[in-house]
Amino acid sequence: MDRGYWLLAGCALTLAVGGFGAYAIFAGQNTHSSAAYLDVDTADGNVSGNETVAFDDLSPAQQEVFERARNSTEMVDIPPDTDYVVFVDNHYVRYRNRTYQVAVAVGN
Questions:
Q1: Which one of 6, 68, 74, 76 has the minimum C-beta count within 10 Å?
Q2: What is the CA radius of gyration of the chain?
Q3: pLDDT value, residue 32
Q4: Edge-to-edge strand ranges of the sheet holding 76-78
């Protein structure tokens, strides 16, 4: 066998190993694109007004996440394009004459 054959075989092997390595790295990543979650519970007791945000002051995306979390018994994903800082800065959301406690969990 000549030198060209071995050079071609070496290049093919290098591409195969590199392709498999790239697949293993990217396919093994968590496909879940959000690392933030929202939990909503009915608030108990007296609630400070300066820790409360009105539902109408939330963006439409924040409102949708809040409603999903309010209607769920589990934490819900916060999409990566939705700002969750309002839920961190305010511990409560006033919605339909009721106050709800909100909590954000952020993971890796």
A1: 74
A2: 24
A3: 37
A4: 52-54, 92-95, 98-106, 36-42, 76-78
Instruction: Dump pLDDT digits (tens) for 47-64.
Output: 888 899 999 999 999 999
Residues pairing with 48 in the sheet: none
Does 2 score more than 80 pLDDT? no
- End-to-end CA separation in angstroms for the chain: 52
Please say whether the beta carbons of 49 and 43 come within 8 A: no
Q: Is the pTM of this model over 0.70?
A: no
Judge residue 68's burial from the number of C-beta atoms within 10 Å of its C-beta, 0-12 exposed, 13-18 middle, 19 or more buried: middle
C-alpha pair distances (Å), 72 with each of 27, 65, 67, 76: 30, 11, 9, 8
The full set of domain ranges for the chain reads: 1-31, 36-106
User: Helix-strand-coil percent breakdown of the chain, rounded to 5?
Assistant: 45, 25, 30
β-partners of residue 42 are 100
Burial of 102 (0-12, 13-18, 19+ CB in 10 A): buried
